[in-house]
């Protein structure tokens, strides 16, 4: 039994939980008691001291409290959810209009009227059996998708694949495979996806930071990374997010190669391509693992494929690395319905739906880029536009202002609490002062968002509501303090 590690979800997992509640519930547990019962709790802050509990049961109770989550902005069916980078256009599956599934063979009537081919099959009768532990067919489909021969003449095969519960399982498995707890380190490039740090804490692995170049659209700095790798041989993994989260910047191929070519470092470069299908065609470097034994490329079906609910991720790697990952996973980590839906999502008719939805998202992304700057109080876009979200500054004045976290928090709160539009505050991350991250929604959702943010900013600049220091509400000041990175 292992406790769930807490970290601020605004900088890691795509969960809509209250950071204030997490701060109130933050506790410390005695290492001896936890070791005795097999629990592992990661402190919200490394410098927190251990606190003794009188009984083991109390330690367990505290641990259970840590694992409970409360929703900050509950969705009642009317909210516009632009906070978790989900696919607003739905699953990339050629479903019937009502979204129903066909189980087993399609009926003769369905075949005759042409509806059978538009449905998806899930074998419910087989749920009494454990799922396939190897998922060879699913892996073959992923290889077929990424064998574009843009970056190599070689083919990747199922031997190059690990599949698991989202990308998060691969993140954790890589750390367990290549890092010795309490000894080895990993390197990340902030601002970046927070689960790298969470998994490092869970596994007692220190994190070395080499920031992205905030003055250059958050570009990777491979020369600085290589300097750190040369200076510290304890670093065994380098996590690079491309396109970045929250930056939406695609990392240049030559920058990745520069790290791969480090002459003395003996470690793995991990490229997280969760949002790669929103970038230029053939931007994925997944097939490049056939040429680089020290490269791992992670992907997910949660974003462009619109299948966040099935939790399916993959790691492309050299066969020996993929074998290590497969050796440490749970035997049946991918459920049968997940695998069946994922396999079908990779079929041509379903890929066509995914690509059509992606194009709709790209059009709305372009619309946000064009129309958001016309709203008084909206500043620069930060980073790139290679994802299904944008990162944009909120200013302290309607015209000629500067990025301001107080305003950004107030916009974030007002949108959610009074307008039913939920976005993400990112202002506490490196180089993201005053920034909100906004997921690209449907055309109707973008219409509503653009209307509501204009109203909210106008109200803020008119000074509506009780304000604290520098015009920031008391609650906004509290949230700005509590939202950590």
UniProtKB/TrEMBL annotation:
Organism: Carpinus fangiana
Location of the Aminotransferase class I/classII large domain: 125-453
Enzymatic reactions: L-histidinol phosphate + 2-oxoglutarate = 3-(imidazol-4-yl)-2-oxopropyl phosphate + L-glutamate
Pathway(s) it belongs to: Lipid metabolism; sphingolipid metabolism; Amino-acid biosynthesis; L-histidine biosynthesis; L-histidine from 5-phospho-alpha-D-ribose 1-diphosphate: step 7/9; Sphingolipid metabolism
Gene Ontology molecular function, alphabetical: histidinol-phosphate transaminase activity; pyridoxal phosphate binding
Family: Belongs to the class-II pyridoxal-phosphate-dependent aminotransferase family.
Record EC number: 2.6.1.9
UniProt xrefs under Pfam families: Aminotran_1_2 (PF00155)
Cofactor(s) the record lists: pyridoxal 5'-phosphate
GO BP terms, alphabetized: L-histidine biosynthetic process; sphingolipid metabolic process
Compartment list: Endoplasmic reticulum membrane
Name by which UniProt lists this protein: histidinol-phosphate transaminase
NCBIfam families per the UniProt record, alphabetical: hisC
InterPro entries: Aminotrans_II_pyridoxalP_BS, Aminotransferase_I/II_large, HisP_aminotrans, PyrdxlP-dep_Trfase, PyrdxlP-dep_Trfase_major, PyrdxlP-dep_Trfase_small
Keywords (A to Z) from UniProt: Amino-acid biosynthesis, Aminotransferase, Histidine biosynthesis, Lipid metabolism, Pyridoxal phosphate, Sphingolipid metabolism, Transferase
Cited Gene3D superfamilies: Aspartate Aminotransferase, domain 1 (3.90.1150.10), Type I PLP-dependent aspartate aminotransferase-like (Major domain) (3.40.640.10)
Chain positions covered by the region annotation Disordered: 1-25
CDD domains membership: AAT_like
Main location: endoplasmic reticulum
Entry keyword Chaperone: no
Protein topology in the membrane: Single-pass membrane protein
GO cellular component, one term: endoplasmic reticulum membrane
């Amino acid at each position: 039994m292992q406790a769930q590690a807490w970290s601020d979800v605004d900088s890691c997992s795509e969960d809509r939980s209250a950071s204030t509640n997490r701060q109130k519930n933050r506790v410390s547990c005695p290492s001896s008691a936890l070791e005795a019962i097999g629990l592992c709790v990661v402190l919200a802050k490394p410098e927190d001291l251990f606190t003794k509990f009188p009984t083991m049961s109390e330690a367990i109770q505290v641990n259970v409290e840590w694992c409970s989550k409360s929703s900050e902005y509950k969705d009642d069916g009317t909210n516009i959810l632009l906070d978790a980078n989900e696919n607003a256009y739905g699953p990339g599956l050629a479903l019937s209009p009502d979204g129903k599934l066909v189980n087993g063979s399609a009926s003769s009537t369905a075949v005759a009227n042409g509806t059978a081919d538009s449905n998806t099959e899930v074998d419910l009768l087989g749920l009494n059996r454990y799922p396939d532990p190897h998922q060879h067919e699913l892996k073959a489909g992923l290889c077929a998708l990424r064998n574009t021969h843009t970056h190599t003449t070689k083919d990747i095969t199922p031997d190059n694949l690990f599949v698991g519960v989202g990308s998060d399982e691969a993140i954790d498995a890589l750390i367990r495979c290549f890092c010795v707890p309490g000894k080895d380190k990993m390197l990340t490039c902030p601002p970046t996806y927070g689960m790298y740090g969470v998994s490092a804490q869970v596994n007692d692995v220190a994190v070395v930071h080499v920031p992205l170049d905030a003055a250059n659209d958050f570009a990777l700095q491979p020369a600085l990374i290589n300097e750190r790798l040369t200076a510290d041989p304890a670093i065994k993994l380098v996590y690079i997010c491309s396109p970045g989260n929250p930056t939406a910047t695609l990392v240049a191929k030559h920058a990745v190669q520069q790290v791969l070519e480090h002459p003395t470092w003996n470690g793995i470069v991990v490229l997280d391509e969760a949002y790669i299908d929103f970038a230029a065609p053939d931007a994925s470097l997944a097939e490049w693992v056939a040429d680089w034994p020290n490269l791992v490329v992670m992907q997910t079906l949660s974003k462009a494929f619109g299948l966040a609910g099935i939790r399916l991720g993959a790691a492309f790697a050299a066969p020996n690395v993929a074998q290590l990952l497969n050796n440490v996973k749970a035997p049946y980590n991918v459920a049968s319905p997940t695998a069946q839906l994922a396999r079908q999502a990779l079929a041509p008719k379903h890929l066509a739906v995914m690509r059509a939805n992606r194009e709709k998202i790209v059009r709305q992304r372009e619309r946000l880029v064009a129309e958001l700057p016309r709203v008084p109080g909206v500043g620069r876009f930060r980073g790139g536009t290679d994802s299904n979200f944008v990162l944009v500054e909120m200013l302290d004045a309607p015209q000629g202002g500067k990025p301001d976290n107080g305003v950004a928090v107030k916009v974030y709160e007002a949108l959610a609490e009074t307008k039913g539009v939920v976005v993400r505050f990112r202002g506490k991350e490196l180089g993201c002062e005053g920034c909100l991250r906004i997921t690209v929604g449907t055309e109707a959702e973008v219409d509503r968002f653009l209307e509501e943010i204009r109203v909210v900013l106008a109200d803020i600049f008119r000074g509506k509501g009780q304000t604290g220091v520098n015009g920031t509400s008391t609650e906004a000041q509290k949230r700005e303090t509590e939202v950590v990175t």
